[in-house]
Amino acid sequence: MVGGFVMAQAGAGFIGGMIVGLLGGHGVLVAKRLCRLLPQQFEAVRDILILPLLGLLFLGGMVFLLMEPVAVLNQGMVRWLSGLDLGHRVLLGALLGGLMAVDMGGPVNKAAYTFGIVAIETGNYLPQAAVMAGGMVPPLALGIATLLFAARFNETERHSGNACLLKGASFITEGAMPYAAADPWRVIPSCVLGASAAGALSMAFGCELLVPHGGVFVIPLVAHWPQYILAILTGALLAACLVGILKKRQSG
Predict the structure, then answer these.
(1) What is the pTM of this model?
(2) Which tens digit of pLDDT belongs to each residue from 78-92?
């Protein structure tokens, strides 16, 4: 909390907050290992005094070293996002949308999502709209595919289709993971292409999302929300059709 406050005062923004959060956690883990060498009588004060004090001292030193470079990085990203023309915005949207579908809730997905959050913090609301559109596409696409191409899915997958639609509408990308795990070479590329299309269209339409999450529940808050819905549905239908074309007919 202290590190985040100092980074905010230095203009390091959300990036600085993430860095000090990671450093603070790892610093306390290192201090905890060092405290194993302490005599047993110090255990009572270890958690309430020694670990917080050592963690704060470690983090204070790291913040002192990092706050200016991270502030420069944060300001540079603000200028870069503000200077993007339409073509570059569309490419960025396609990239962010596609990354959201690569591992559907894994590290790559979270990296793209974090970029959108950082952009919100800097006052640019275009990237997060592309991120949410890309994240909604995989589960929506698989839910639609189970309806349009039922013969391509087994009985369990067909029954899960409605739940997948609900998860997609709620921006829960992980809803598509069972389908991706069962047939990754067909499902994942299809979802990546559909999510990229949704992200690119979101950027092209100038859609802006001022909140970090919410799915359909926050679409009324999106700038140009009718076009935003069109972007999401276009990406989902594209991915669903690709899945239906690529997947083999199921016997069960």
Answers:
(1) 0.76
(2) 676 666 678 888 999
